[in-house]
Amino acid sequence: MVALGYSVVAVAAFAALWWSFKLWRERRDALSLLILIPLIFLWLDNFAIATGRFIGEGMLLTGMSYIRYFWHWAMLPLLFIAAGILARHAGFAWARPKIVMGAFCLVAVGLIVFDASHIIGIKFYPACYGDTFRLAINVAADQVCDPANPPPKGVSVPPIAAIGINVLLMAIGAGMWWKHKFPWLTLACVFMFACAASDAIPGFFWGQFLGNVGEPVFNAGLIAAAYRYGANPWPTPSSS
User: Fold this and answer.
1) 158 located within any domain
2) What's the confidence (pLDDT) of residue 236?
3) CATH classification at residue 115
4) pLDDT at position 103, please?
5) Residue 235 has what pLDDT?
6) What are phi and psi of 132, to 5 degrees?
7) pTM reported for the whole predicted model
8) Is residue 77 exposed (0-12), middle (13-18) or buried (19+ Cβ within 10 Å)?
């Protein structure tokens, strides 16, 4: 049942990727490209979990696990730059100074270096969740496949980039809602935040799955905002 749910989320993530690709084909601009790149392997994140029990522990699942972890760590921070560009196109005066865009770029680069560096020497351990099997870097106590031989405590990478970009886009979306009556970015971010937070509820079995459910919805809201504002004239950036 859980594996089927991840399969559905994988399809939804691929649909978001296709919609983002269509946006890039139409616009061929930096905003659409920065939204597209992090989405390229989001579907694989869910596909690997949905099919892990059939693939089994081996080179194929290990390879998919390396890709899905590295791509998330290395590419998600690009959305900070996309957020700055989107805010400019939406006409927010605070986003026009060059120093603001420079700050977004510095944050993105810093998080890429910090997060992606964790891929060096990373170790994967089998994790069982419902009827799914995956390879994880840190296995929760209730997802240990063999309780008699639990894996060692793995690496725990704080989701600074994921939380930061969600809060930032939620705030930008709130401005769009207030200024232009465009609620979809904020609603998508709130949904993502609620889904991710559900994983922290003690004893709530579906929390981890819901965290993945929120991702394609979050990206759909971002793509919708890019469609709405990305074609607006690029404002002349101020120097301060």
Assistant:
1) yes
2) 61
3) 1.20.1070
4) 96
5) 63
6) -105, 155
7) 0.93
8) buried
Q: CA-to-CA distance for 20 and 227, rounded, in angstroms? A: 10
> DSSP 3-state assignment of 144?
strand
147 domain-assigned:
yes
CA distance 102 to 75: 18
Q: Which two tokens stand for residue 179?
A: 């200024």
Q: Is residue 239 part of a domain?
A: no
- Report the C-alpha gap between 142 and 4 in whole angstroms: 20
Structure tokens at 162: 């994921």
Q: How many domains does the chain have?
A: 1
Q: Give the Cα separation of 196 and 213 in Å (integer).
A: 9
pLDDT in tens, 204-223: 999 999 999 999 999 999 99
Nearest-angstrom CA–CA distance, 101 and 115: 21
For the segment 64-104, what is each residue's pLDDT rounded down to a tens digit?
A: 999 999 999 999 999 999 999 999 999 999 999 999 999 99
- Per DSSP, the three-state class of 106 is helix
Token output for 199: 């994983």
Q: Which CA distances in Å does 115 have to 80, 96, 104, 188?
A: 14, 28, 16, 24
- The C-alpha atoms of residue 27 and residue 29 are separated, in whole angstroms, by 5
DSSP character string of 75-139: HTTHHHHHHHHHHHHTT-GGG-SHHHHHHHHHHHHHHHHHHHGGGTT---EEEEETTEEEEESS-
Mean pLDDT, range 121-132, rounded to an integer: 94
Range of the domain at 12: 2-229
212: in domain: yes
3-state helix, strand, coil in the chain (%, to 5): 70, 5, 25
For 80-89, how does the pLDDT look when each residue is reduced to its tens digit (9 = 90+)? 999 999 999 9
